[in-house]
Each structure stands twice: as C-alpha cells, then as structure tokens.
Amino acid sequence: MRPFAPRGCPSPGARPPRRPRPTARGAPAHALPPRRRRRARRRLDVDLEFHAYPSLFDGSAWGPSETRDPGLGRDVLLWNWQGNLSWFGGRRLKAASGVAYFNKTEAAERLLLAWAQAMAYPPNSDAPDDQALDLLVNNDGWIDRAAYGWLPAAYLRMSPHHSAVAPVIDHDRGAPVSGRGRNSPKEPVLPPHALPVPPPIDHSEL
Asked: Quick check: 29 and 18 in contact, CB under 8 A?
C-alpha cells in the first residue's frame, strides 16, 4: 500500500516531475513559436479516409535537387486541378485544400505564414481558403519562392471525377462530390505587404 500524501504533495518515493527540455537559448521547446520548431505540417479535411500509407509525404519520394536539403524533397505538396495542364507548364495552381503538406523548410513556413496572413485580412473573412492560396502562388510570386510537388489524383480521390483511380486518400469515403460543399462566391484579394517580400529561391545554387 502506497503511503498517504496530502493533495498537491508528491507521495514519498515518487519521481519528480520532468522539467521541460531546454533549447539552445534556454526556452522550453513547447514554448517556442511554430517557426522555431521546424516540423512538417499536414492539412487534411475531416471527411478523408486513408486507404494506403501516403509515401509521397516522405522526403525521399521526390527528387534530391528541389530544396537545399536533399533529404527533405519538396517544400510544399498540394493537390492541383491544373497540375497536369501542359499549357501552364506546372506553374499554375488551382488547389483543392482538402490535402496539403508543408515541409519543415523555411520556404514552406514562409508560404504558410503568408497564407494565414491573407486569410486574416478582413476582406478575405468569407473568401475560400484554397482560392486565397491560388492567388498567392499565381499572382504574388510565390510560385518561385518554394519548390512544389503536385499530388496525384489518388491523394484526394473525388467521385465521379476519379472513379477509376485506386485511392491513397479518399474524399468523403468515395461519395460523389455534391453542391453542398461548394465554395463561397467571395473572391479573395491580396493583402498589402507590411514587410519586404522574400526573394525567389535561386535553384541554380541548389
């Protein structure tokens, strides 16, 4: 039988509570802002169903020359309706924001921050978030500030568009896409730049 201890006091022989792991600058890791933690981030709709392991989220699945760290692959992975249109040469985004992957790179974190700031801009309060991301990439120069990977149809299979595709990630358990979830008619606008826009990545130095 364990010895009795008053409430709030550790019982005799109990291990002391762990202290937060300090970082190089002395702040606990959990207290650091997200940009200091450098973890990959995934954005997924709640009505998705995984049928297989999403191996394209692994850095080794992409070419080693796309980012400054050969082991990290692309900066950002997005599902792009226009990713395979030869007219745009892979340089235009029409996103479906049900699946998005932001790697643990500075370029990915800058884009994620710009996206959050665009959605926090009051005129965009009712605008679709995927269209705001399109606007940043296509009209604000972000297509050249990060290395992108366009995810295949299997990573957001939507019926009836992709009925013949074996899914890795299924939208709404394969149910047909209906008009109930259509985007708001509000069109997003670019917020003003309070700080200088970061320069594009020079891929020749990678």
From this structure: no
Q: Which DSSP string do the residues of 69-104 spell out, in sequence order? A: STTS--SEEEEETTTT-TTTTT----EEEEEEEE-S
For the beta carbon of residue 148, count every other beta carbon within 10 angstroms.
21
Per-residue pLDDT tens for 68-79? 555 567 899 999
This prediction's pTM: 0.68
Token pair 């040469």 in the structure block, residue = 89
SS3 content of the chain, % helix, strand, coil (to 5): 30, 15, 55
Residue-range domain boundaries for the chain: 40-57+73-180
Q: What is the pLDDT of residues 10-22, one digit of tens each?
A: 455 555 555 544 4
Rounded CA separation 154/23 (Å): 40
Q: Which tokens sit at 57?
A: 């989220």
Secondary structure letter of residue 161 according to DSSP: T
